[in-house]
Amino acid sequence: MPSFPRLTLTALLLAYPLHALADAKETLNNLVVTGERLADNSESTQRYTVPASRSATGLSLTPRETPQSVSIITRQQIDDRALQTSGDVLAQVPGVSPSRADSNRMSYSARGFTIRSFQFDGLSIPINNFWNFGDTDWDAAIYDRVEVVRGATGLLTGAGDPSASVNFIRKRPLPDAAISLSTSIGRWDRRRISADVSTPLTSDGTTGIRFVAAKDRNDSFISHQGDDHDTLYGVISSELSSATQLTAGVEYQRNDSDGMGSGVPVFYADGDRTDFDRSASNNTAWSTFYNETTRAFADLSHTLDNGWTLRAAYSHNDGNYGMQYLYRGGYPDRDTGLGMSSSYLNYRGNRTQQTVNLSAEGNFGLLGRQHELGIGWMYNEDDFDILTASPAGAAPDAGSFFNWRDSVVAKPAWGDFANADSMRVTQSGGYVVSRFSLSDPLSLIVGARLSDWELDQNYFGDERQYRYSNELTPYAGLVYDVTEHTSLYASATEIFQTQNARFEDGSLLDPLQGRSYEIGAKTSLLRDQLDASVAVFRTEQNNAAEAIPGVEVIGQPGTQANRSIDGNQVNGLELELIGEVQPGWNLSASYTLAQAETAQGERTNTSHPRQQLKLFTAYQLPGTWHDLTVGGGVRWQSDISRAASSPNGSVQVGQDAYAVADLMARYRFNDNLNAQLNVNNLFDKDYYEQIGFYSQYWLGEPRSATVSLNWDW
C-alpha cells in the first residue's frame, strides 16, 4: 500500500495553515459515554428523516446546512414498504431510476448519468458495471438507512459520474437488549425469515453486539427463474475509553439464482414486434448464477481534549462470482422460433477489495468566529480475476426459442477455464473541506480533493495500463439562513471519470470532467418534523471522446483515434417533501425533471425517464383504531426509448409513461407482535422495465402481495 502522496499532503498544507488548528478556541461536545453512543441510528426514531448526515462533505451537517440535494431512506421507510434488497431501496430514492441488463445485473441512474459511487459507512467501494455479477443486490436487513447525495460528489468519492453517491449505513448495536424476528410469504412461492438480535455486554451499555440473519427464497413470474439469498451480519461496538470508540464487524451475503436469463427478443425475423406472455424466458433450466461476498470492517474514532475527532477505518472485501447460461440473440422465425444465434457462456471470478479511510474533523476559531474543518485521505485497491470456459466440442443445438417453456436445451460439457479479465484498479486521494461561518446567517463550504488513479489490466490477452495523477476536484457551497427554519443555497461541485480513448499520437484523453451547479431552498416545517426542498441544477460532462473518422492511433493498427469535445449536459428540477405531517402520519413525496442533452441539443440517456414522481405515505389511525397503520404510494415515470437493431434496420422502441401503485397495512396485536400486508403493482400494470438493450426487453413484475408476521422485544 503506497504512502500518502507527497503532492496531496502539500496541497492540504497549503490549503489551510497549521496555525489555524492551534487557534481553536471552542471544542466540540465530548462523546457521550453512555449507551446512547451506540444508538446512532434511524430505526429508534420511527421517522422518515434523520437530523444530520456526513455523506456530502464529510462534515456532520443538517439537511439545511448541506448545499446539495440529499435524500435518505430510513429504516422506517424500508420496513413500511417491505423493501428486501438494496435495489428495492434505490428504486424508491428521489431522482434515481433503475435499468436491467439481465436477470441479475442492475444499474442505476440519476441526473442523466450512471451511478458508480457506492459507499459503506462512508468508505468508498466502487462498483464495476461491466462485471457487476449482482453486486448491487444486497439484502437490506443489515442497513439502518441509505443516504444518497445527487450531483457531482468527487470530494469524498474520487472517480465517478456526476450522478449521485450512495452511502449504505449499517446497523449498530442498540443501547438496550432487543430481539426482532420476522417471517413472510408472498406470490411466486416467496418465503423469507429474518432475525435481528442486539444486546449490551456491559452494565453501562458502552459495549454491545448485534447479529442479523436473513434467508430469502422465491421463484419468479418468468420461467426457470428463482433466487435464494443468505445473509449473515455481526458487529461489536465498544467505547474503549470515554473518548475512544471501536466498531468492528463482518457481513456475509450469498445470492444463488436458478436461471440466468437475458431479455426476450423484441422482433420476429420478419421485422414485426413480438408479443409473448409475461412468463416468456430467454433462459434454460440449467442456467445458474451465484455471488458470494464477505466484508470485514473496523472503525476507530478518538476525540481529543480540544474536541477534534480522529477516525481510522478499514474494510476488506472478498467476492466469488459465477454464472453459466445460454444467450440467444437475433430474431426468431414467427412460425418456427428458429433462427436465433446462440452462445454458451461460463464465467468464474474472484474479487478482492481493500479500503482505508483516515480523517480528522473539528472546530477552529478565526477572526472572532467559529468554523469547522475536515481533512481526510482514502485508499482503495480493487482486484478482479475473471475466467471463462467454452463448451468442449460441439455446442448443443439451441433449437426453437418457442421451447422456452420446456427448456429442452441440453447443458454443454465445459472445457478448461482461461483468463478473460485480470484487473487491478487503485485509487487514492486526500481532501480538505471547511465550513466558514461568515456571519450568523451565512456560511461558506469550500474544499478540494487531489486524486491518483491507476489501472493494470489483461483483457482477453490485451494488456492495458492507464494512469491519472493529481486530479484536482474542487467543491464550493454557500448557505444563507433566511429564517430559523429556511435556507437558500448554491453550490458548484465536480467529479472526474477515467476513460481509455486515445488521441492520434497514442496518449490518453484527459478524464471526463463532471460539473454540477445547483441552487435551491430548504425548509423545516411543523416543528422541524417535515422537511421540504426545491433544487434547480445543471450538470455538465466535458472531455468526451469523439472518434475521428478514418484515423487510427499511430503505431496501433485497428485502434480508433479520438479527439476531446465538450460532452453532455443535464438541466433539471427536483422537489422533495419528507417527514411527519402529524403524529403517526409519515410522508415521502418527490418530483424530478432531468433533461439530458448533447451539446448540440440531442436527447441522451433515453433509456431512463426524464420525469419521475414518487409518493408514499403511512398513517397510524387514531383512537380505537390506533393499532392499525395503512399506507400506499405511486411511482410514475415519463417515457423511455432506445434505438434497437431489427431485421429492417435501426428502430426506435420504447415504453410510454406509466404509473405503478402500491398498498400496505400493518396491524399491531400488542406491543410485541404485528402483521403486515404489502401489495405491489396493485392494478397489475403491464410495462417494460427495460427495452431495446441488445434488441430485447424485460417486463416489470406483475401484481404481487407479501404477508409478514413480525415479533419485537
TrEMBL record:
Region span, Disordered: 42-62
Keyword Transport appears in the UniProt entry: yes
Leader sequence residues: 1-22
Domain TonB-dependent receptor plug: start-end pairs: 63-163
SUPFAM superfamilies noted in UniProt: Porins
Topological relation to the membrane, as annotated: Multi-pass membrane protein
Domain of life of the source: Bacteria
Name of the protein this chain belongs to: TonB-dependent siderophore receptor
Organism: Halomonas casei
